[in-house]
Amino acid sequence: MNEDQLLGPWAHGGPCGTAVLKAVAEDFQVDEVLDIPLSGAGEHLWLWVEKRNLNTEEAARRIARAAGVPVRNISYAGLKDRQALTRQWFSLHLPGKADPQLGKAEDETLKILSTGRHQRKLQRGAHSANGFTLRLTQMQADHADLDARLERIKACGVPNYFGLQRFGFEGSNVHGAREYAERHELPGQRNLRSRLLSAGRSYLFNRVLAERVAVGTWNQAQAGDLLAFTDSRSFFQAGYPECSDPRLALLDLHPTGPLWGVGESPAAGEARAVEAEIAAAEPSIAKWLAEAGMKHERRILRLPIGSLSWHYPGPDILQLEFVLPTGCFATAVVRELVSLAGQTDI
């Protein structure tokens, strides 16, 4: 499967040019934004960790080995890119134990920047956002075109597509999801099951979003849409008055698309018709997700870009800084700017 099949149309016109992302780890930096003050006491030790070219799960295993505890005692808020320089929180459950010596976990790929005690463990999804610093290199694009596009993105947001990395090389995770769905089976291995279910839901969401981008309603509320605030998992149905809510223009409130699961979509009108069309085109995956017990959830169609700024360290380098809600992909922003020639896995 190619990019057009996994993602969809551009919202602001085609790419302004080409560039390379992640030539080195420092070109893709991510910092968790976590608004939880540590109490300084308790049976959970929290660690602020910097990782370079190391995935979150392997970092957790290394910390567990160094601490002499089972990996199940290690918690983290979210998974971060491997090919990147990332800073994120971990917590260790250490009831009745002193702080362990963790030096054996550290090397050039992992550094523990600070520690603190707290009464509770770190929960998945506890962080409120992620801050990004991206450097696009070997860029071939006109600066004036890029500036104009970035101003438009700052004002209007971008389609909230799930990134290509969610789907595996050439969409292998989607192929796997479809194969299991057509056999009415689930993978026995927990990690594989989670990955394929996630890929199936993400693929159907992207198809709905692609339809909305194609007709220009991805950033507009229609009667029957389910609306949600940027950082909320709850939603409400839009009638005609809600379609004129000023918070839509402020990029605080957005139309949503489905994350497939049990039950009928609560959307109505044209929004429901589009979702039904996609479900009819992929009946095996839609039914499989429901049979797996996935809960029907919603995801905002429009991605607002917080604190967006940029500059050019060199004539062929563009550095971007911005903040995104959790679960959203920085590559969705980059895609509306430039084409990453030859890079299909980020």
- The secondary-structure element order is HEEEHEEEEHEHHEEHEHHEEEEH
Continuous helix count: 9
Strand residue percentage: 25-35%
Calculate the terminal CA-CA distance, rounded to whole Å: 15 Å
Give a description of the structure:
The longest helix has 26 residues, at 190-215. The protein is an alpha+beta fold and 346 residues long. 29% of the residues lie in helices and 27% in strands. It is globular, with a radius of gyration of 21 Å. The chain has helices at 3-6, 56-67, 143-156, 172-183, 190-215, 246-249, 269-281, 283-291, 330-335, and strands spanning 17-21, 28-33, 44-52, 74-76, 85-93, 110-118, 129-141, 158-159, 226-229, 236-237, 253-259, 297-300, 302-303, 306-314, 317-325. Strands 1, 2, 3, 4, 5, 6, 7, 14 and 15 form a nine-stranded mixed beta sheet that branches. Helix 4 packs across helix 5 and helix 4 (172-183) crosses helix 8. The mean pLDDT is 95.
Brief summary of the model shown:
29% of the residues lie in helices and 27% in strands. It has 346 residues and is α+β, with helices and mostly antiparallel strands.
How is the secondary structure organized here?
Layout: H1 3-6, E1 17-21, E2 28-33, E3 44-52, H2 56-67, E4 74-76, E5 85-93, E6 110-118, E7 129-141, H3 143-156, E8 158-159, H4 172-183, H5 190-215, E9 226-229, E10 236-237, H6 246-249, E11 253-259, H7 269-281, H8 283-291, E12 297-300, E13 302-303, E14 306-314, E15 317-325, H9 330-335
Helix pairs in contact: 4-5, 4-8, 5-7
